[in-house]
Design goal:
Elements (H helix, E strand, L loop, with lengths): L2 H4 L2 H6 L1 H7 L5 H8 L6 H14 L12 H8 L3 H13 L3 E4 L3 E4 L19 E2 L3 H11 L19 H14 L15 H9 L13 E4 L2 H12 L5 E6 L3 H9 L3 E8 L3 E2 L1 H7 L5 E6 L13 H14 L2 E5 L24 E6 L11 E4 L4 H11 L5 H12 L2 H27 L5 E2 L7 E5 L6 H10 L5 E2 L12 E5 L6 H15 L1
Parallel strand pairs: 5-6, 5-8, 8-9, 9-10
Antiparallel strand pairs: 1-2, 3-6, 4-11, 6-7, 10-11, 12-13, 13-15, 14-15
Helix pairs in contact: 5-7, 6-7, 9-16, 10-16, 11-12, 11-15, 17-19, 18-19
Length: 507
């Protein structure tokens, strides 16, 4: 048996000694120059070699790399050296680590044009989307349907076991929390302290006196809407806007005024300025960081301008920052609230996207509207679960949250890239899509003649769920668009679901 025959598929590519023995044209001096003279740079050489193999197409997007121990054995390297090389490739976006599975070649970044901001109606309109939203969400729960509708992280990416341990510890250390029968809101001081600490460094950090702990971000938003509006009022929203925000306006008997929104820079400040000149807008409801469904992050200067403009014109700002911690950049983007000098901005968020939907812990930094929000909280849902408040407080204080979020952000960025690559691979050439800067969703704009609402039933029958674009508009815009969830690891099953959806689009 020859030396070549002793080398399997990966050995042939990764073991230099085997390669040397079988290839007469390679000089021995080159081997020593590469692998002996600079032993402290062995991880860089391994990283370069793996990168070359991937670039040559010998390992394709989605392929699994040999195990760490296998690479170490074949290269005669330590496990730590191999891990260092893999970390370098991971940080460079060449490969990705999947829990309990190993390392995989990343999908190539998809090159497609982004959608343009669209002109929106000049007049506010009543909202009527709830029934259609519920129909879509119920269909997305059917067994066997690919989970591309709900904007949720896969449970394998969430620290559920760690949270269970914290929960057990809290119940053991604070048994009287189980006896709580208070009917008034008692916000956990340790949780308030942690929320305030997370705002240190903002131009305007949070204050305990403005915070209200809620059961979710949805509840926080609803409390704020009811605190600053009356039935019949007009609320400015992004376009496209998260359908749940539209549902909140619908339930409160409010009208929506859609403001053009850029997939890169968020809501148009110029358009908002024009819309608020005559005093008809009572509030502005938006997502500045990782907008849902666009994934855009508003530049700081625009946030500063928006805070100043709305304060001057008496327009209350309700800001959903639930995806703020799920940014893909190097630094956590500040919310509009950070630039609020008058208490006019109400910042809403929760830990449902980052830790677990079951925690049921959110909050609002309500500024000068705190008393109105607290009153709405008292008469609608009462106090927030005391045990869960302490669980979140302890988890934040331990430092585990920040470590978890670094990993979760990396997973989501990779999953979004993989979804973009699949859409680029399968969908019609005229398809446009966003390039999200955070979050876990992808907005896809199809050719004009395609109606994603009309297509929905066939997609469900084919085992694929999504959210039709018209549900993100009070006026029924975006019928040729759809939103895809990227919160799940990108598996062959997900790839196949995208392919099946593309086939329906092409029919």
């Amino acid at each position: 048996m020859t030396n070549n025959e002793n080398c399997d598929h990966y050995s042939f590519r990764f073991l230099p000694l085997c390669w040397l023995a079988a290839t007469e044209t390679v000089l021995l001096e080159d081997y020593f120059a590469r692998y002996i003279v600079h032993p402290t740079r062995l991880y860089e050489q391994l990283a370069d070699d793996l990168k070359s193999i991937i670039a040559a197409g010998n390992l394709r997007p989605g392929d699994r790399l040999p195990s760490v121990r296998r690479l170490a054995s074949e290269r005669h390297l330590s496990v730590s050296t191999v891990l260092q090389a893999l970390r370098q490739l991971e940080e460079g976006g060449v490969i990705e680590a999947r829990p309990q599975s190993g390392y995989f070649v990343c999908h190539a970044t998809a090159r497609r044009a982004q959608p343009d901001a669209r002109s929106t109606p000049e007049e506010p309109v009543p909202v009527d989307v709830s029934q259609r939203v519920m129909r879509v969400l119920q269909a997305g729960r059917k067994p066997g349907v690919a989970p591309l509708a709900f904007a949720l992280s896969d449970t394998t990416l969430l620290p559920l076991a760690a949270l269970q341990r914290v929960y057990s510890s809290v119940v053991r250390r604070h048994p009287r929390l189980l006896e709580s029968g208070m009917h008034i809101q008692l916000d956990n001081q340790a949780l308030l302290r942690q929320l305030i600490l997370r705002s240190v460094g903002w131009p305007g950090p949070l204050s305990a006196s403005e915070l209200v702990i809620t059961n979710s971000c949805t509840e926080a938003l609803a409390l704020c809407v009811r605190a600053v509006t009356r039935p019949g009022d007009t609320v400015a929203v992004e376009s496209p806007a998260y359908y749940l925000m539209l549902q909140l306006l619908e339930s409160a008997g409010l009208k929506a005024l859609e403001i053009p929104t850029d997939p890169r820079r968020g809501l148009s400040i110029e358009a908002l300025e024009l819309a608020t000149r005559d005093g008809r807008v009572a509030a502005c409801l938006l997502v500045a960081n990782a907008s849902n469904p666009l994934g855009s992050i508003m530049p700081d200067e625009h946030k500063r301008r928006l805070a100043k403009l709305t304060a001057e014109r008496g327009v209350a700002v309700i800001e959903d920052d639930i995806f703020g911690d799920l940014h893909f950049g190097s630094a956590r983007p500040w919310p509009i609230k950070a630039f609020d000098k008058t208490g006019n901005v109400m910042l809403c968020s929760s830990f449902s996207k980052s830790l677990s939907p079951a925690l049921a812990i959110g909050y609002v930094a309500a500024g000068r509207y705190r008393s109105q929000v607290a009153l709405q909280k008292a008469i609608t849902s009462g106090p927030t679960n005391a045990i869960m408040q302490q669980v979140v407080a302890d988890y934040l204080e331990s430092g585990a949250y920040d470590r978890h979020m670094r990993l979760l952000r990396r997973h989501h960025a990779q999953q979004v890239d993989a979804m973009r690559a699949a859409v680029a691979r399968y969908f019609p050439a005229a398809t446009r899509m966003t390039d999200p800067q955070g979050g876990l969703v992808l907005w896809v704009e199809l050719p004009e003649e395609i109606d994603t609402s009309a297509l929905f039933d066939r997609a469900i029958a084919s085992g694929v769920a999504y959210v039709p674009g018209e549900l993100f508009s009070a006026s029924g815009m975006y019928r040729n668009c759809l939103r895809l969830n990227c919160g799940n690891p990108f598996t062959p099953a997900i790839d196949d679901a995208v392919r099946r959806l593309s086939e329906l689009v092409a029919q």
